[in-house]
Amino acid sequence: MKFDEHVERPVKAVLLALIKGYQRWVSPMLPASCRFYPTCSNYALEALQCRRLLPALGLIVWRILRCQPLCKGGYDPVPQSGKSRERE
Fold this sequence. Notes:
Blueprint: H1 5-26, E1 36-37, H2 40-50, H3 53-66, E2 74-75, H4 82-87
Parallel strand pairs: 1-2
Helix pairs in contact: 1-2, 2-3
C-alpha cells in the first residue's frame, strides 16, 4: 500500500519537528551515547528528507535497534535509494 502525498507530507512534518525538538531540548541534557555517525537523530532527519515515509521509518527503526552495546557502530549513512543508484 502506498501513502498519498497529502497524508505523507504532514506526517513527515510532525516527525521532523519532533526530532528537531529532541535535538534542541533533550539531547543537550544527555551524555553523548550514539554509536554511529551520523547520530541516530541526524540519520532519522536525513532518511525522512530523502525517502518516502514507510521506507524511511523502516531505516530509522532498524538503526535505533542497532544502536546498543552489542553493535560495533561507526560510519553508517542513509543508504542511497535504488533510483539514484541506477542513475550513477
